[in-house]
C-alpha cells in the first residue's frame, strides 16, 4: 500500500518537527506548540483572542538561523456589519518588546483582506500561490474565518466559504505550515459557548481553544482546550502580559508618548520643507504634553489617533479664540463708525 500514510504515523512524525510557540509557556505546554500542517481554531473573548493572535504572529517572525520567516495574515470582515481592524500600534510595541525591528518584521507579513464572501473564497487561491512562491512562510493566520458566512444568510454562500476553509487547511498541510483561525462565539445555553462555523468547522479543526477572561483587572485569563489529537479537554490559567510571559511589561503611557514624539520629530518634522510648519509642530507637542492626562485616560483609541484628536481640539480652541477676538473688533469698529458718523453730523449742523 505504497503512497498511503496512516493517520497515526503522520501525527507521530509531526511531533518530531519544530513547533511554533504561542508566546506563552503555559499555552505551549497545553497545546504542545503549534505543529506544522495542523489547523488551530481559537475563539472566545475578543480581546483575549486578538491578543493571542498577535503574540503568535510575532513568534512566527522571529529569525531561525539564516531564515527570515514570513507569515500570512488574512482578515475577514464586512464593514457594513462589524469592522475588523489590526491594532498596529499594539503590534509594533509587541514586536519591539520581543527584540524585533518593527519595520523589518512588518515587511515580512503578507496581509490579505476579504470584505465579501467572494473575496474570501478567491483569497484561498492567493494563499496557495504565496506558499508555492515563498518557502519561508512559517504561519498562516486567518482572523474571523466564519464572520462572512454568519453575516450572509444564503446557505449556498456558507457552503462555499466552508469549502474554501477546507482547501486552506489542505494547502497548509501540503506545505507543512500551521494555520491558526479565529471566530466569534455563538450564543447558547451551554456553559461554554460554541464557535461560529457549525459542526463542519469544529470537525475540520485539529485543535480547538476557547479563551475566557477573568474578572476585570485580573492578570490571568482562562484557556479551555476542547479538542486535541493527543489529549482530552483541559483548562489552564495564563497571562500574556507581564514579566513571566512577555519578558518585558507594556511600557507606561508617558514612555510610549515620548517615544512616539521622538519618532515623529525624526521621521516627520525634519522632513517638512516649510519652516513655519516645523515650528507649528513644536506647538502641537506642547499641546499634547499639557493634556497627557486626557490622552492616557482615553483607552479606546490608539496613541496616534489621540494625538490627531488633541490637535483638532487645539485648532478648534484657537479658532474659537480668534472668532471671539474678531467679534470684539467688529463691535469696536461699529462703535467707532457710529461715533464718526455722529461727529460728522455735528460738524454739518
Structure, briefly:
The chain has 349 residues and is of the alpha/beta class. 52% of the residues lie in helices and 15% in strands. The strands form two sheets. It has an eight-stranded mixed beta sheet with strand order 3-2-4-5-1-8-9-10, with helices on both faces. A two-stranded antiparallel ribbon has the order 6-7.
Topology readout:
Layout: H1 7-15, H2 25-31, E1 39-44, H3 46-60, E2 70-76, H4 88-97, H5 102-107, E3 109-114, H6 117-133, E4 137-143, H7 147-151, H8 155-174, E5 179-183, E6 185-186, E7 194-195, H9 198-204, E8 207-213, E9 221-227, E10 234-238, H10 243-246, H11 253-267, H12 275-290, H13 292-297, H14 303-348
Number of domains: 2
| Helix run count | 14
Described by strand count, sense and barrel closure, the largest sheet is:
8 strands, mixed
Low confidence ranges:
242-250
CATH fold type of the largest domain = Rossmann fold
Query: CATH homologous superfamily name of the largest domain?
Result: P-loop containing nucleotide triphosphate hydrolases
Number of separate strands: 10
Question: What would you call the shape?
Answer: elongated
CATH class of the largest domain: Alpha Beta
**What's the pLDDT, averaged over the residues?**
82
For the largest sheet, list the strands in their spatial order: 3-2-4-5-1-8-9-10
CATH architecture of the largest domain: 3-Layer(aba) Sandwich
Give the N-terminus to C-terminus distance in angstroms: 124 Å
Q: Into which percent range does the helicity of residues fall?
A: 40-55%
Percent strand equals: 15-25%
> Cα-atom Rg, whole angstroms?
28 Å
The run of helices and strands is HHEHEHHEHEHHEEEHEEEHHHHH
Helix vs. strand class: alpha/beta
Amino acid at each position: 500500500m505504497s503512497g498511503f500514510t496512516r493517520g497515526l504515523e503522520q501525527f507521530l512524525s509531526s511531533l518530531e518537527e519544530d513547533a511554533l510557540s504561542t508566546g506563552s509557556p503555559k499555552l505551549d505546554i497545553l497545546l504542545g506548540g503549534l505543529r506544522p500542517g495542523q489547523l488551530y481554531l481559537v475563539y472566545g473573548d475578543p480581546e483575549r483572542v486578538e491578543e493571542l493572535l498577535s503574540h503568535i504572529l510575532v513568534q512566527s517572525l522571529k529569525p531561525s538561523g539564516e531564515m527570515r520567516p514570513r507569515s500570512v495574515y488574512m482578515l475577514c470582515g464586512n464593514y457594513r456589519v462589524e469592522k475588523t481592524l489590526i491594532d498596529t500600534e499594539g503590534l509594533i510595541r509587541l514586536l519591539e518588546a520581543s527584540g524585533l525591528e518593527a519595520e523589518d518584521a512588518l515587511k515580512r507579513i503578507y496581509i490579505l483582506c476579504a470584505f465579501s464572501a467572494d473575496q474570501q473564497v478567491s483569497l484561498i487561491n492567493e494563499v496557495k500561490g504565496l506558499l508555492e512562491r515563498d518557502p519561508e512562510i512559517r504561519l498562516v493566520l486567518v482572523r474571523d474565518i466564519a464572520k462572512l458566512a454568519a453575516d450572509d444568510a444564503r446557505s449556498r454562500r456558507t457552503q462555499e466559504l466552508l469549502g474554501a476553509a477546507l482547501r486552506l487547511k489542505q494547502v497548509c498541510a501540503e506545505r507543512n505550515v500551521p494555520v491558526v483561525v479565529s471566530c466569534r462565539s455563538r450564543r447558547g445555553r451551554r456553559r461554554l459557548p460554541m464557535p461560529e462555523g457549525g459542526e463542519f468547522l469544529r470537525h475540520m479543526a485539529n485543535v480547538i481553544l476557547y479563551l475566557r477572561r477573568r474578572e476585570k483587572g485580573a492578570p490571568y485569563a482562562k484557556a479551555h482546550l476542547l479538542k486535541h489529537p493527543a489529549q482530552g479537554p483541559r483548562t489552564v490559567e495564563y497571562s500574556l502580559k507581564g514579566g513571566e510571559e512577555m519578558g518585558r511589561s507594556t511600557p507606561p503611557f508617558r514612555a510610549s508618548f515620548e517615544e512616539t514624539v521622538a519618532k515623529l520629530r525624526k521621521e516627520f518634522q525634519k522632513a517638512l520643507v516649510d519652516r513655519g510648519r516645523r515650528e507649528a509642530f513644536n506647538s502641537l507637542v506642547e499641546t499634547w504634553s499639557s493634556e497627557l492626562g486626557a490622552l492616557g485616560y482615553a483607552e479606546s483609541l490608539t496613541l496616534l489617533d489621540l494625538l490627531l484628536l488633541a490637535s483638532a481640539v487645539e485648532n478648534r480652541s484657537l479658532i474659537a479664540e480668534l472668532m471671539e477676538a474678531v467679534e470684539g473688533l467688529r463691535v469696536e469698529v461699529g462703535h467707532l463708525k457710529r461715533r464718526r458718523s455722529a461727529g460728522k453730523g455735528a460738524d454739518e449742523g
